[in-house]
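tool_call predict_complex ligand=manganese (II) ion
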Amino acid sequence: MIESIRVSAESVVGTTLREHVLICMRAAPGATGAFTSLLNHISLAIRIVNTRVRAAGLAGMLGYTGETNVQGEEVQKLDAYANDVLVNVLGRSGHCGILASEELEQVKFSEASGKYVVLFDPLDGSSNIDTNVSIGTIFAILRRQQGELVPSLQDALQRGKEIVAAGYAIYGPQTEFVLATSQSVDAFTLDPNIGEFFLSRPNIRCPQRGSCYSVNEGNFSRWSPGVQKWNSLMKSENKEKNLPYGHRYVGSLVADAHRTLIKGGVFAYPADSKSPKGKLRLLYEANPMAFIFERAGGAATTGTERVLDVIPRELHQRTPLILGSQEDVATYCEIARG
Ligand code: AHG
Ligand code: MN
Ligand code: MN
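tool_result ok
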C-alpha cells in the first residue's frame, strides 16, 4: 500500500527528507525510530540556521562576537548562533547521548540514555559569511560505544569508519542537504515556501575522474616539494592526461567538497609549514566528508592513510585532507605522498 501511495505521490509531490529517512528506517532491521527522529531534529536545526543565514545581513548577524574559540579563531556571530541552535535542538531530540562541536572546547553530555554521538561544524566557511559566499553545516552521527553505561569522551573519539551517517547543508543559491547513510548518498533541496527538503539528487555517485582541482594556491611556498610537484602537474600541459585541470577554490569546505562530489576532481588541504598537521579538523570536517565521498564511490586520504582509519587522539585534532574522484586522489598520493 505504501509503495503505491509513494509512487502516485511522487508523480505530484517529490519525496521529502522525512519520507526518505522513514524508508531507510524500514530497510534497517531492528530500527527503533531513534535514528529517524535524530535526523529529523538535525534537519530542523539546519532549517532554523538557514533562515538566519538568509537574513544575516538584516538580523545584525554579520561580523564577529569578539570572542575566540578553542581553535584560536575569531568567532563569527553566525558561528555562535548555529552552534546554539544545534546544541539546543539535539538536546531536545532525546537520542543524542553526547555531542562535540567546533565551537565547544569540550564534549557536551546531552541525554544520558541517548544512543548516538553527533559531531558537527555548525557553520563552515566562516570567513565567507560577510561576503555572501556559500557556507554550510557539517555533521557526523555515530553510535555510542556498546556496553558503556554513561557517555564519555571516548564515544566521540571513535574512528571515522564507525560513522553510521554523515551529511552537510550548503547555504548557497539553493539550500541543499546532502545525506550519506549505509545505503546511499542523496541530496535534498529546501523549498523555502513549504519549509521541507525534497529529494533533488538521488543516489549521488562521484565520477571516477574529474577535470578540476581545488586547493589554496596561496600556500604554495609552505607546501612540501611533493605537494608542490602535484600542484605543478595539475597546471601542466599534457593532452593525454587531460591536463591542465581547471582550478576552483571557494574557501568553504562544504562548497569545494560539494562541487567535487557532483562533478569529480580533487580537493586538497595538505599539511604545510604553517599548519604542519593540516588545517581541517578530523572529527567534524574530514571524517564526515570522507564518509560521504567513500559512500559515493570517491576517496578520502590524509595523503598517507585513509581518513576513516585515523585514530582520533583529541577532539579538535587537525588533519591533511584530500577528497575526490578515485583516480584524481590516487594521482595526488602518487605524486605528493603527504
Ligand atoms: P570553518 O569556517 O568552520 O573554520 O572552516 C573553514 C575551513 C574550511 O571551510 C575551508 O576549506 C578552509 O577553512 C579554508 O581555509 P583557507 O582560508 O586557509 O584556505
Ligand atoms: Mn569548517
Ligand atoms: Mn566552523
